[in-house]
Specification:
alpha/beta; Rossmann fold; Barwin-like endoglucanases; 3 domains; six-stranded mixed sheet; six-stranded mixed β-barrel; 24 helices; 16% strand
Length: 757
């Protein structure tokens, strides 16, 4: 058969199929650095939900029946399942109001622009009266909350304005990155990616003579071929290191006082803190060395090197997923301001180079169609990572961005396009919280850990089973996504599932506007074509499989160059119009855990304290999948050992525990435990271990609270606590554990379906 193009969040691929199975996968020919995750597409027909399924106790005894996550399921007809779900939505809306429905569904879902599961869900819930939603992202909640206070930018807009990698390759002499620039993360891009360019630009920079410094507990957070210097601090001490660099710059007369005066406010307050005038502790290199474990002389010399070269500072998203994570991004911006190179070609800062493929790729953001919805009439929401708090503590207060809010009383959860039992912290706590609602409804192609803990499961198609248009607004490609497979089992598109529910609830036409899904997809393309009249017709686009826009003739982007040139004419949207190193707005909130200027606060859980758990676990993005997507695919499975996720540990820590590569190990703390496969490596610093996220949660016995995960999901270990009262982001990286050799470790079985009655 003729191969068809599809686009995923990790790239575009040509796919061969016989209609029921994928027989071949090849990267898109125009991608210079394709991701191997595409090979896992063959697994989309495996571990599937084959028919609408209802938890037996819920079906027999009604909403609120105990046994969620333990009971067997009963397969029913589509009409029966839709009737049951619609009746339950109507019951909750009528008796408790729409605010009792949580539709904060979160996850990467499909790369397709129309069949984006969360957008479909949110549109549906809005047209039937609204829902309680969420704000921000697990990826960078603390960072995206602090950025507008400091720069006046929405972080999503700031991403598009980042200095182009092309400029860095041509002008930057020194790149210093906290958390590195991980190539594995740059495989992915929300909406899809036709060309991966980061590696090529960084190689060009290296060949021109750019030096790289990786400040991270993990050496290969910067690619080995970049010959980076590795400085390995204790996790959670990045702000102390940045403050020490500021201290050296200040006392040695290397700070750009002119830039600080003309383009910033708050330097006098921050300077007094750095020099110890406000708290009696100067933030010297020796002070930071005693906290971080780095060499004080190297910190002083690094400060001088930064001032003496065209320098780009960068910070990875993972650094702010820790206690007081807001301070990390704020401190990096402040350090760049003290250097005074913001707005210069190749100088300044980046907040996430390498986090996703598009940051710095130089592509102008293009208007892109999206599935619209009326305004949500329900005003309740939660910060994205406070799901368990909301379910466990209805009516309790919480703070967020200066507001005092109250958790709503949720009786029904509807999730589509994500897997909270992958990405949420302290999964044992989430298991308890997940019992509280009367009903959980899930649209899902696969029998994930979330689907197994639902009451009603609707089998959903994957992007390979439907028409769509795909691509990122930060990319110059748009792809025609034609079906590669027939729908597996009884799977239906999310759109058709919600259309059926909306019809039963009297909102069918309001949801569909009288269009089929294919008519919507064509309308999306026509809306896009109206912005670019030279684009081919829809029929030509389908026949060609993709289109590529010509390169922009504008000069490559330099972040804040206009602001640097004229801070009055190009003032920022902060209260002062300048970079705010001290925020009067944040000061007015009075949060002890988020002071009004960048501040080092000792983490609540870290290696600097005496603990029964002497190792800190870094739960980062895996290299072989996107979060938990296609964990059962060949690329992901090839890295596992004995079916378990791989944990990396320094040789000294392994030797002291009598461990060797290939051992099954038990990782544990007071919150939970999991089993993993050990790889001994000097690419992680002593006292730190790396266990990537994404292994499907697989407890030994779901009926026993706190049962160990056989498969290696680190979120059975991580803390479910907000970064601060301001951002309430996830703090997963602040997590201590102990590790021991596992005797008779249980065999993982994460991809099997549930029991059926």
């Amino acid at each position: 058969m003729t191969p068809k193009l599809t686009v995923t969040h990790w790239g575009a691929y040509e796919v061969d199929s016989d209609g029921s199975e994928i027989t071949g996968v090849r990267p898109f020919a125009k991608d210079p650095d394709p991701s191997p995750i595409g090979n896992s597409l063959r697994a989309v027909t495996q571990s599937r939900v084959m028919a609408p399924s209802i938890r037996q106790s819920w079906l027999e005894n009604g909403p609120g029946a105990p046994g969620r996550g333990i009971d067997p399921f009963v397969e029913v007809s589509w009409d029966e399942a839709l009737d049951l779900a619609a009746n339950e939505l109507e019951r909750v809306r009528t008796t408790l109001g729409n605010r009792a429905v949580f539709g904060g569904s979160y996850g990467w879902a499909s790369a397709g622009r129309f069949h984006h599961a969360q957008s479909q869900l949110h549109r549906f819930l809005t047209v039937i009266g609204g829902y309680t939603g969420k704000r921000d992202t697990y990826s960078h909640a603390a960072g995206e909350v602090i950025t507008p206070y400091v720069l006046g930018y929405n972080y999503w807009d700031l991403q598009a304005e980042h200095t182009a990698l092309e400029v860095i390759a041509a002008h930057t002499e020194l790149v210093v990155s906290f958390g590195g620039i991980p190539m594995k993360n740059a495989q992915v891009q929300n909406g899809g990616m036709g060309r991966h360019t980061l590696r090529g630009w960084l190689d060009q920079a290296r060949d021109r003579g750019t030096r790289f410094v990786n400040i991270s507990p993990i050496r290969d957070d910067l690619a080995n071929e970049l010959d980076a210097e590795w400085l390995a601090p204790l996790p959670g001490t990045d702000v102390a290191v940045m403050l020490a660099l500021m201290h050296t710059l200040t006392i040695e007369g290397l700070s750009d006082e002119s830039f600080l005066a003309s383009h910033c406010i708050g330097w006098p307050q921050l300077r007094a803190y750095v020099l110890g005038e406000t708290d009696g502790q100067a933030k010297t290199a020796d002070w930071a060395a005693s906290i971080s474990g780095l060499d004080a002389d190297r910190l002083r010399s690094l400060a001088r090197e930064l001032a003496g070269h065209r320098s780009m500072l960068n910070i990875a998203w993972g650094v702010q997923r820790a206690d007081y994570g807001e301070q990390t991004w704020w401190a990096l911006i402040a350090l760049a301001a003290v250097l005074g190179q913001i707005g210069l070609p190749g100088g300044g800062f980046g907040l996430g180079y390498g986090a996703v493929a598009s940051i710095g790729n130089g592509v102008t953001r293009r208007p892109f169609p999206a599935l619209g919805r009326p305004p949500n009439p329900v005003e309740d929401f939660i910060p994205v990572a406070r799901v368990a708090d909301m379910l466990l503590h209805p009516g309790q207060p919480y703070t967020y961005k200066g507001e005092d809010r109250t958790y709503p009383n949720i009786d029904l959860v509807y999730w589509s396009g994500g897997n909270p039992f992958h990405h949420h912290q302290d999964l044992n706590r989430l298991v308890r919280a997940w019992q509280r609602p009367s009903t959980v409804i899930v649209n899902e192609p696969f029998w994930t850990s979330t689907a197994k803990r639902a009451d009603i499961v609707f089998p959903a198609t994957t992007p390979l089973e439907r028409f769509d248009v795909g691509g990122s607004p930060r990319e110059d490609f748009l792809f025609a996504m034609k079906p590669v497979l027939n729908p597996v089992g009884q799977a239906r598109d999310d759109y058709d599932i919600f259309a059926g529910l909306a019809e039963r609830l009297g909102a069918g036409v309001k949801f569909t506007e009288g269009r089929t899904s294919q008519q919507w997809v064509e309308q999306f393309y026509q809306t896009f074509k109206a912005e670019f009249p030279d684009n081919p017709s829809y029929e030509e686009f389908l026949a060609d499989g993709f289109l590529q826009h010509p390169a922009s003739e504008a000069s490559p982007t330099v972040l804040l160059s206009a602001f640097r040139a004229d801070p009055s004419a190009a003032s920022l949207l902060t209260p002062s119009g300048k970079i705010e190193l001290y925020s009067s707005t944040i000061a007015s909130f009075g949060y002890a855990d988020c002071p009004p200027h960048p501040t080092f606060i000792f983490p609540r859980e870290w290696l600097g304290e005496v603990s029964d758990y002497p190792l800190q676990v870094i739960s980062n993005q895996p290299s072989t999948r996107l979060h938990s997507q296609l964990d059962h695919g060949e690329t992901s499975l090839a890295r596992k050992v004995g079916g378990r996720e791989v944990l990396r540990m320094h040789p000294d820590d392994a030797a002291s525990r009598g461990l060797v590569t290939g051992d099954a190990v038990r990782v544990h703390n007071g919150r939970g435990s999991c089993y993993a496969a050990l790889v001994v490596s000097d690419a992680v610093r002593p006292r730190v271990v790396e266990l990537p996220t994404g292994a499907w949660y697989d407890p030994v016995d779901p009926a026993i609270e706190g049962s160990a995960c056989r498969h290696g999901n680190p979120n059975v270990l991580t803390r479910d606590e907000g970064t601060s009262s301001l951002g309430q982001g996830p703090s997963a990286q602040s997590c201590l554990v102990e590790i021991e050799k596992a005797v008779n470790a249980p065999t993982p079985d994460p991809f099997s379906g549930p029991r059926f009655a």
